[in-house]
Amino acid sequence: MKKQLLSIMIIGVFLGVSVQGVLINSTLADTTSVTEDHPQVRSDFLFDAYIRTLMRLANKPSIATCIIHDDDVIWSHAYGYYDIENQKEATTQTLYLQASVSKTVTATALMQLYEQGLFKLDDDVNEYLPFDLRNPNFPDIPITIEMILSHRSSLADDNLYWMCLSYLPGDPDVEGFPYPWLEEYLTPGGSAYSSSTWSLDKPGETYYYANVGFSIVAYLVELLSHQDFNEYCKEHIFQPLQMNTTGFRLRDVDIDNCAVPYEFKDGGYFRHPHYGIHVLYPAITLRTSIDEYSHFIIAHMNGGVWHGVRILNESTVALMHTAHFSPGDKYNYGLGWEVTNKVFKKTYGHSGGYVGFLNLITIVPKDDTAVIFFSNALDSELRSTRMEWNAISAINHALFAKAKRMAS
Known about the structure:
Layout: H1 2-15, H2 19-24, H3 45-58, E1 62-69, E2 72-83, E3 88-89, E4 96-97, H4 102-115, H5 145-149, H6 160-166, E5 167-169, H7 181-186, H8 212-225, H9 229-238, E6 262-265, E7 268-271, E8 275-277, H10 281-284, E9 287-288, H11 290-301, E10 305-306, E11 309-310, H12 314-320, E12 331-333, E13 338-340, E14 348-354, E15 357-364, E16 369-375, E17 377-379, H13 386-405
Helix pairs in contact: 1-3, 3-13, 4-8, 4-9
């Protein structure tokens, strides 16, 4: 461990990265304008050695990363093996399960329908659902669509029984999902109901991160568009953005090109099977590549447009990236997007972690720069250690520092 840290410090000095800072906190490195086709866009030996050392500290068998600036990918690279046993090297076309980063796409789908005037954000969701959605502790307070998109609906904990039951190898369906399963799960007296599903705070007042809220979002997409959620996303998001290998379900992607979910445990990598989480798939199981997801991020950075293709209006994008509630001094939440709570430098994006995956999207609109980070391992018990996050933060810093150096 001491040798690894010494290597990081030495290489960091050569690269001009503040190693002490990136190992202590996760503040983004300052960035400036980037010039396309600059010679430093090419991966160099020291940079690669630095990233690979941080990968070992973070216990990642593979990562895929890219830097976006001025509506273009100016650098991208993948490291390591996405399938250790079969020695398959990761590329920028390798598909990684996105965990909660999936919410950025699901929210975009619903907001496309918002632009068509099919609903208003302050509408009571019960105007559209075939059942009454209310916090039983506050039955007279309406739950709006905006509350659901910004995690303020007062939905609280995911029922662990159903989460474990739906985490299964392959791509199984759950009978009756989304309806009537959502009614059975969310309403008192339902066969899948738990009182812990709802918080003791009034809807609209407190932030609670609830994955099942985005299952409701996907169901609203189906109800409003009269189209299957997966098919809707293919037609209105993936195909226009040329995300042709991207999908929410295993049946929609090439499994041989999917990064294997690994769990780092007892000093080694435990291989999990590819899996589905059907009752939460709109919130968790998007699988995409660095190359393809960059198209989506560029569209959000560019007022809804990627290479002349518009998927959202500029005003809608701004609304999604605006903080709708502040849960503390670290970050806010918009509509499907995390927004940092910084006075002088706003950032937005999303993080995601689930069985075998940890991903991070960071966008700095002031500098028109973004970094995407995908990885296919998570420490045991679905948690990430401080060392892991520090190493990931260091990689993020190195990428933003690389973007800055490319301008000099």
